[in-house]
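hey team, just a heads up i'm posting the complex here instead of the shared drive bc the drive is being weird again. everything in one block, sequence lines first with there labels, then the predicted structure for the whole assembly after. its two chains so it's a bit long, scroll down
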Amino acid sequence: MERQQIEKKVLELLKDQKPDVQWDLTSSLDKVDSLDTIEINFAIESEFNVSISEEDAQKLKGVSCIVDYIDRKINGAKL
Amino acid sequence: MILTNKHKDDSERIVITGMGIVSPLGVGFEHNWKQIQNKVSGIVKLDSEAYKNVPSKVAGLVPSGENGFDINKFMTPSEQRRNSLFISYAVGAVDEAVKSAKLDSFEDRTRIGTCIASGIGGLPEICSTCKTFEIGDKDYKKINPFFIPSVLTNLAPGFTAIKFNFQGPNYGTSSACASAAHAISDAAMLIKAGHADIMVAGGAEAAICPLGVGGFAALRALSTSYNDSPSVASRPFDKGHDGFVIAEGAGVIVLESLASAKRRNVEIYGEFISAGITCDASHITAPNPEHSARAMKYAVEQANIGFNEIGYINAHATSTPVGDKCELEAVKSVFGEHVYSNGFAISATKSYTGHLLGAAGGIEAIFTLGALMHQELPPTLNVTDPIDEIDGINYVKDMQKHSFEYAISNSFGFGGTNISLLLKRFS
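-- predicted structure starts here --
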């Protein structure tokens, strides 16, 4: 999957999960609470068919982080 | 000493200032009452393939469309994902109750509590999650993180409190088919004990899924003879009654002290007088008339009124042969000759809605209040050949005017639990 496509899907997913937040690639997950974060990770795992470990989940603090993480997981891209 | 209303001050009297209903008849009290006046049944056929192996194929489903339930009016997509259907029904009913009681303008939210019951909670969601979990090799990561909070019975009051900012006492009672009536009675007690000024109380249920229907069918509790004519399947007091019709929805009322209602200058729909609460302590499912009679008797005694002052009973009557007859035996033992007089009537609104299980006591308290307010009685549908036990008693064939001050709403549940709510026309 192309990185641009990942970015698009992640933003769509975040908008769907939390429509009241303005999302772009620079957004931070500080805008959502801990339960939202769990739900967002759950949605990412289902959408991209990846598994996010508890340790990795702690590091996913922003949209660009999430995109990098998925890119690396499915395309093997270096961070 | 038991005090009559004349001796009670306004802080001790509990009145009803709001009502909200989501039922198989549709959404909203006014619409539900119209459906009752027009003798429209809310029972439909369960025609999905998922029910092909279940012998009962009728149910009281909450309708969509005009006057039906539109979840998008009450819950955002994110809230819908995070909550079971019974919680959505609770929110729908509370929304109407809050508007009718004008609770938005009440400033001290710490004085508003919530007691909304459910008998079963999120059974369809438990089933679907279980299926995903099993298919996914029991990987916990396949479980929606909101699964547990979405199915807990107390998340109906819990989520409602978040949505409407009710910061007072918050829990749900659970006593099977008597759950909502216990919630209403608890709410009145909490106000009397000073824990809250206002309580939003009732019940919500949405347990119609193959496992839920199949489970009650396995108990031989459901109607099976009217699968092709759903509107006549729920027929309490008729010789053709053959089991209850499972249903869903929510019924919620707003209770508050008369002092609070007067301060707020809001409309009063009726008065909560008392409750009689007992247990059979004999059998899990089979009712015992001695103890349901005791519940009605306690309620009347606590009200300190005469037995002949009860003008109407909204029966529990689920349309099972054993239950309907048992309740009539109990009623006769308490009210004696009064049951044959013009001043008395008993009807079963489950003939319209089916059995909403843990929400039944909520919508039936509302129907009882409707009867008191309008001074007219909701009929029992589908009684073409009345059972011998109801001979000589007015079971209300057609909508009729009736002059009365006091009414009882009965709720009985598995586990032998019995509760009779005694309500009064407000004056």
